[in-house]
Design brief:
single chain, about 375 residues, globular, mainly alpha, about 0% strand
């Protein structure tokens, strides 16, 4: 068991980590409703929403889309471990990783604990680190390849919102800035785990020696070592392996994006001719949210969604209601699932840790007795 596993087990489960993002999200939504209260009668908006067969079906389809997202990532974990993980184990790792993403700032990400979750399912920690670096590379590669295609197939005024407002300029600038950072990071990952791992390791070793970086020297050196180890394994993988794991990655992200499309189909039928634009804007939203300082993008996601899609909905109130349904399906559901799963996982992990400690202590005592007998 790793040090991270032990610290997690000993630290227990903090309920405030679940309630904090919920509090932030609800506060922002409440403030937005209050801000727009003088502009619209929200009772009329709610009364205008009829949960007829079309709306209910589209909400169900939204959950089905998220099932596609979970299937894609579970499939990817299975493929990455050469089927060593069962479907249930891979799904458990996916849920734990998603919960961690929900309670950590988007700018930080929760994938760093993925190796701990994999290790708890029987994957050796070194290999688990290799796998999580690979998943990180695949996610970033998907954005790097897909975003230019989406931009080229969309009208500039459609994808970045027309009107030349401060919001449209801001979101365009943020998108391209973050995209360039993702591109650079993806290239470094490609060089580090496939192309020139030794070169990256030497560079990281030099950086760890800088005075400003000495505090994180062990982590930086460890990253370089893990990249070299990852490279050795990945270079032996056949093309079929890469095709399978990338298909799982693409399925997971595309399914997540389609949630917004089906919600528009149900709540805003007038936007049906603009389904491609609705889909394309999801790429912009998720790239921008990668630099969110709040846990799981709480608050910022709701605001960004209602502002970004407001011109396609017609009223700020309806845009905000769509944002709430979107977050319930894609975020709060996983927060709830994780809150149920994590305490049980921590309990089992802590029990294993205590058992290993007892075994180690017994082995040490046996060794001492053998020395005495000699």
């Amino acid at each position: 068991m790793t040090d991270n596993s032990r610290s997690l087990s000993k630290g227990g489960f903090s309920v405030w980590k679940v309630f904090l993002p919920i509090l932030i999200g609800l506060t922002v939504v409440g403030l937005m409703f209050w801000h727009d209260a003088g502009k619209e009668n929200f009772e009329d908006i709610w009364s205008g929403i009829h949960l007829d067969g079309r709306v209910v079906l589209c909400i169900i389809m939204g959950f089905i889309c998220m099932f596609g997202r979970d299937y894609g990532l579970t499939w990817r974990f299975r493929a990455l471990t050469d089927k060593k993980l069962s479907w249930s184990q891979a799904w458990r790792v996916d849920m734990l990783c998603e919960f961690t993403n929900c309670v950590t700032p988007s700018a930080v990400g929760g994938s760093s604990l993925g190796m701990v979750f994999l290790n708890s399912q029987g994957i050796e920690i070194g290999r688990a680190t290799t796998l999580m670096l690979t998943t990180l590379f695949l996610d970033e590669l998907f954005f790097v390849l897909a975003c230019p295609v989406i931009i080229l197939l969309s009208l500039h005024s459609d994808i970045f919102a027309s009107g030349g407002t401060g919001f449209s300029h801001g979101i365009r600038f943020t998108f391209w800035t973050v995209y360039m950072l993702i591109f650079i990071w993806t290239f470094l990952l490609f060089a580090g785990i496939i192309w020139k791992p030794v070169w990256i390791q030497k560079t990281l070793t030099r950086i760890s020696g800088w005075k400003i970086a000495r505090k994180w020297s062990d982590q930086i050196s460890g990253l370089g070592y893990n990249m070299v180890a990852t490279s050795r394994e990945l270079r032996l993988k056949p093309f079929r392996f890469w095709l399978e794991v990338f298909c799982g990655t693409a399925l997971s992200w595309m399914s997540r994006y389609l949630v917004v499309n089906v919600l528009f189909l149900g709540f805003v039928p007038s936007a049906d001719p603009y389904q491609w634009t609705i889909f394309a804007r999801q790429f912009v939203i998720w790239v921008v949210l990668m630099v969110s300082p709040t846990p799981g993008g709480a608050g910022l996601s709701e605001w960004l969604f209602s502002e970004y899609y407001g011109d396609m909905v017609g009223t700020a109130g309806m845009a905000l209601i769509l944002a709430v349904f979107w977050r319930i399906i894609t975020y709060y559901l996983y927060l709830l699932i994780g809150a149920v799963m994590v305490p049980s996982w921590l309990s089992k992990t802590y029990s294993l840790f205590r058992k290993q400690e007892r075994n180690d202590k017994m082995a040490q005592n046996d060794e001492k007795d053998d020395k005495k007998d000699m």
